[in-house]
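Structure first, sequence second, as always.
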């Protein structure tokens, strides 16, 4: 599960060594569903790091338990990336909605974005980067228009309709 049992609280990955590029390279070039999840304090902009860490571990364990063959990587303290093989984004959304609802915490809120990707490491890395940009825009500006599939605490967050030019 973790790459170094002594540092498992900080470094979560489904490969032997913590390294995002290595994980992406091992996933191959076929179709995938990418899932990025971030957790933040519900009522404060700082703190609750221990609570975030415990929550991240609950989600991590649930995803590895419920999704056979899922690849995963902790991006930052409050962020996880999961890679599901195949292109069934609806099934991935349903599974992660269930996981996030089961891990709901009154002091924390989670935001999850799902997208599909095909291609090698560079294509997946570009899509993960775009997803992280989308998370930042949604957290800071309430703008979920970059992606169609969002979950807020496990519930579907509908993106705003496209703006007229």
């Amino acid at each position: 599960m973790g790459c170094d049992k002594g540092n498992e609280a900080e470094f979560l990955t489904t490969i032997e060594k913590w390294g995002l590029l290595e994980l992406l390279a091992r996933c191959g070039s076929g179709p995938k569903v990418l899932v990025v999840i971030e957790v933040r304090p519900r009522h404060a902009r700082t703190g609750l790091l221990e609570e975030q860490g415990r929550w991240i571990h609950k989600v991590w364990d649930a995803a590895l338990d419920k999704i056979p063959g899922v690849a995963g990587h902790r991006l930052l303290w409050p962020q996880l990336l999961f890679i599901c093989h195949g292109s069934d984004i609806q099934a991935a959304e349903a599974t992660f909605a269930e996981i996030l609802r089961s891990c709901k915490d009154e002091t924390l809120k989670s935001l999850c974005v799902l997208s599909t990707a095909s291609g090698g490491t560079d294509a997946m890395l570009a899509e993960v980067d775009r997803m992280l940009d989308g998370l930042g825009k949604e957290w800071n500006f309430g703008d979920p228009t970059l992606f169609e599939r969002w979950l807020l605490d496990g519930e579907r967050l509908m993106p705003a309709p496209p703006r007229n030019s």
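Margin note: Residues 61 and 88 are 21 Å apart (CA to CA).
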